[in-house]
Amino acid sequence: MSKGLLKILACPVCKGDLVLKSKKLVCKKCKEEYPIKDGVPILLPPELR
Fold this sequence. Notes:
With 49 residues, the protein is α+β, with helices and mostly antiparallel strands. The protein has one helix at residues 3-8, and strands spanning 18-21, 24-27, 33-37, 40-41. Strands 1-2-3-4 form a 4-stranded antiparallel sheet, with no helix packed on it.
């Protein structure tokens, strides 16, 4: 995942910044985790996954 893309993505729950950690995105603010499947981040809130 490109650094440019990470700069524009935000956590859908709290709007915090996301960081890439072992094939998932993790919110710096609320610590919610979002999986990456086939190179596509799944940024759905937990209740919709």
